[in-house]
Every structure is written in C-alpha cells, then in structure tokens.
Write a structure and sequence with these properties.
8 helices; disordered N terminus
C-alpha cells in the first residue's frame, strides 16, 4: 500500500521511497546487511568513497555504537537492482553522502525529513553537499552554514623532505597512549571537530607513527586507517603548537605514507582543509596530488 505522500511502509522494517524513475532509497541500521549490498559499489570508486569505507568498517568491527550512543542510519539508492549512491549517519554527527545529482539530493532530503530525521549537517563532495544543503533548507527551513572546505589528495611519487629534521620515526605503543589521546583532542579542536572519548581511544590503540626528537621525546604524529579496498587514508597529522614550523609534520607524514605503501597499500589518501595553505603546500611537496574537493555544512536547529 502506498501512502498519499508517495512512500510505502516496509515489511522488512526498513524505510523505502517508492521508485519514480530515479530509484528508491532503502534505510537500515544493520551494518552487515548494508555492507553485503553496497560493498561492491563502495569499492568500485574507493578514493571518493573513502570515508564511507572506513566508517562502515569501524561499525562492522567495533559495533554499532562506535561513534555514539544512538544506532547508525545507513541508506542506499537502488535503481533497476543496482546501487547508485549511499549515505550513513552516526548520531550525533553529520549525514555523509556519496556523490548525488541535485534531483537525488532533493529526493533524499524529502524522504528523510518526511521520516522525521533531524540532521545537524551534511558532509560530501562539494557539489553534493551544496545540493543537499539547499534541498534540506527548502524542505525544513533549516539554514545551512558551510563549516569546512577540504581537498582530498592521493599520493603519487613520495618525495620525503630534505633535509629531514633531527630525530627518527617509530610506531606508537602502549606507553604513548595518554599522549596520543591528548594530542587527538588537540587535533580535533584545531580542525573544529567534536571529539569523543570512544574515537580518542580507537585512535590511541590504532596505527600511529610518531616522529621523536633525538633524545626520545615525541614531537609529531600521523595516524592512518586500516587497509580497505587496497587503500589507506592518513586521518590525523598533529604537531603541538609550540613545536610547529620545524619540519616534523612533513617528516612523520612521509614516514607514515612510506610504511603504508610497504605494508601493501596500493593507494594512500588524505584530506586537508582548503583554508590551510601551509598543509596544502606541504602535501604537494611530498608528492600528493588533488583528487577532489569536499565540503561540510551545519544546519540551524528546526523547532519541533
């Protein structure tokens, strides 16, 4: 039975949008089912889908509450039996989208608003994020404010900085955990993210390379994701403020990139803010090349 608004209830507990020629959105909170259905689509374009791949892998391995107390919301757009786009949301964080046309963005905004979803914002490639932000404003009245502009880079030929700063690299271990948690929170504050203790703990227990001064004091770090679809992403590069400008970030990023390649990754990615000319210039010098631009918008609250 189809409702007057064009939607129909789903017998399997998922939310559906009826197919009007553009496909239908199917929503679920079952991570394993979602990945079984969209894994091939996400891996078909691993670079632009890097965030989707890494977040869903974390949900699969760490459980549905890896990013917060509420269950995740996962969705796919199907047309003629093929997946055309996906999204995820891990409350309380923003909606994250793979590339959509303006029409697809409009249909999704209408569908989510109709289901009563209250979104704090959206993150996606630049055009998709802009299209969804406009659609959400039209549908709900929420005012979008762009809060981030990022560029995705892919490593071409690694060119380590010369000369390297004094010191050496090493893999972070259990004795570094307290420092890593503290530096993760500093990094999140620098980039305007809302850190969580769960994320800080995962970071501290993960794949982190340190650059340390010759006497053994860590001065910078670079963290990477696990290898997924043949690629890793450098997720966190941080040097405490009083130690910046000495080449530590370039050295540790180059070493983390080299180590990931040596471990079998075919592609190394990273994001950096387009508002940070220093980091963009650094990554270009190291051999990273632009892949595409991304954006994030925050939405003003909508009265109940």
């Amino acid at each position: 039975m189809t409702r007057p608004d064009g939607r129909r209830p789903a017998a399997d507990g998922r939310s559906h949008l009826t197919d009007d020629g553009g496909g239908r959105w199917l929503l679920t909170d079952d991570v394993d089912d979602f990945l079984a259905r969209v894994g091939g689509f996400l891996r078909s374009r691993p670079a632009p889908h890097t965030v989707q791949l890494t977040v869903t892998e974390t949900l699969r391995t760490s459980g549905p509450h890896a990013y917060g107390a509420e269950a995740p919301v996962l969705g796919r757009l199907e047309r003629a039996g093929e997946v055309r786009a996906t999204f995820f949301r891990t409350p309380p964080h923003r909606l994250s989208l793979t590339p959509l046309t303006p029409e697809q963005a409009d249909a999704l905004a209408d569908h989510l608003a109709g289901l009563g979803h209250r979104l704090p914002g959206v993150s996606a490639d630049r055009d998709t994020a802009s299209a969804f932000a406009r659609a959400w404003h039209r549908r709900t009245g929420a005012v979008p404010t762009r809060c981030a502009r990022q560029r995705l880079y892919r490593l071409g030929t690694l060119t380590p900085p010369r000369p390297l700063p004094p010191g050496r690299s090493r893999v972070a271990g259990p004795r570094d955990r307290e420092r890593l948690v503290r530096w993760y929170h500093e990094f999140a504050a620098d980039v305007g993210e809302a850190p969580s203790e769960a994320a800080a703990a995962r970071f501290a227990d993960g794949r982190v390379t340190l650059w340390e001064h010759p006497e053994g004091t860590p001065v910078s770090l670079a963290g990477v994701t696990p290898v997924i679809a043949g690629q890793v992403r450098v997720t966190t590069v941080h040097t405490p403020v009083h130690l910046r400008g000495r080449g530590y970030a370039g050295a540790v990023t180059a070493e983390a990139s080299r180590a990931a390649t040596a471990a079998g990754a075919r592609q190394i990615l990273l994001f950096t803010s387009l508002d940070n000319a220093t980091s963009n210039a650094l990554y270009l010098r190291l051999g990273y090349v632009p892949v595409g631009d991304f954006a994030a918008y925050d939405f003003s609250p909508v009265p109940l």
